[in-house]
Amino acid sequence: MDSNVFNESEDPKSDNTAAFGPEVALWMRPLGTRLSGKVGAQYLYFQEYDNQRSWNTANEARWEIPLARLTPFIAGSYVNSSDRQGYEIDSRARRHDDSYTVGSSLAFTGKTSIVASFTRANAEYDDEESLGDLQLARALNRREDLTKVQLRYALTPLTTFVVDTDFGRDRFKNTDLRNADSLRIMPGFELKPAALISGRVFVGYRRFEPLNENLPEYNGVAAAVDAAYIRNSTRFQARVERDVEYSFQPLRPFYALTDVGLTVTQRMLTSWELVGRGAHQRLAYQRLSAGGTAEDAGKPDVGYVVGAGV
Fold it and tell me: What is the pLDDT, as a whole number, of residue 58?
């Protein structure tokens, strides 16, 4: 039961809802190569508000050709979804995302390798999708090019030290206000599930440079943390994200996002678990004034999430 289907501050509407869909993960080794992929579909059902019903699909594939020290690869993805997108757009707007990646890894030693890749991605909203009087396609449809170089060193069988460096180039299809170039350097660790702490922990530096001279640059800390720790029958999972995100608002084209969350799972007997979670989001905007000058947008938007389950 969704108590506020349209996220309205006044007179919220409620409805019964359900989601159902299959997903298939596959791994193959044709002619000594490695092919992996995932294909999934989901039907989102609402009992009363049938305009919220939708079919969603998410698909991805990766093909690797292992040679002596070199492993070239290609990858691709396609998502067609009307789920709520991100932290700012809370309507179920239909969006199409597709991407392809080409790259290769090169092993220098048994512990050290380098991975280089290029990704081109497209993000497009349907023309009829809007929030208020603002058309999402006009504001946010874009092409993203990402060149990535990654240095990897296996410290232990369970822990890998990684330095991620990527150069981004975002170009919007209907407006040049948000066009930007960026640099991100993210050292961190990848930790396998058997390690004391598992997951990914990356903290580094982000330089975000809009091409519009009336928008300010962002230079600061970036973070991508999704790590878990198990103590006896309790599992703690922490998530931290710090980065720059685009906004659909014409006078506030982007914001610095800080998202911090914690999930605690307590095993009860042998078959049951209790789950509690909490999160805090902070969206710090930069505003483009009517006079064409950049200035601080004042008090940031703040969100909280609390939840429980069994």
Answer: 95
Instruction: Compute how many other C-beta atoms are within 10 angstroms of the C-beta atom of residue 222.
Output: 21
Specify the 3-state DSSP secondary structure of 147. Answer: strand
Rounded to two decimals, what is the model's pTM? 0.86
Separation CA 172–CA 211 (nearest Å): 12
Q: What CA–CA distance (Å, rounded) separates 170 from 172?
A: 7
Q: How many C-beta neighbours within 10 Å does residue 23 have?
A: 11
| Type of residue at 61 | A
Residues 91-122 as b/e (b if ≥16 CB within 10 A, e otherwise) read ebbbbebebebebbbeeeeeeebebebebebe
Instruction: List the one residue out of 98, 177, 95, 172 whose CA is nearest residue 141.
Output: 172
Q: 136 — phi, psi (to 5°)? A: -65, -35
Please classify residue 309 by burial: count the beta carbons closer than 10 Å to its beta carbon, then call 0-12 exposed, 13-18 middle and 19+ buried: exposed
Q: Could you report the per-residue pLDDT of 105-115, keeping only the tens digit for each?
A: 999 998 999 99
pLDDT band at 297 (very low <50, low <70, confident <90, very high): low
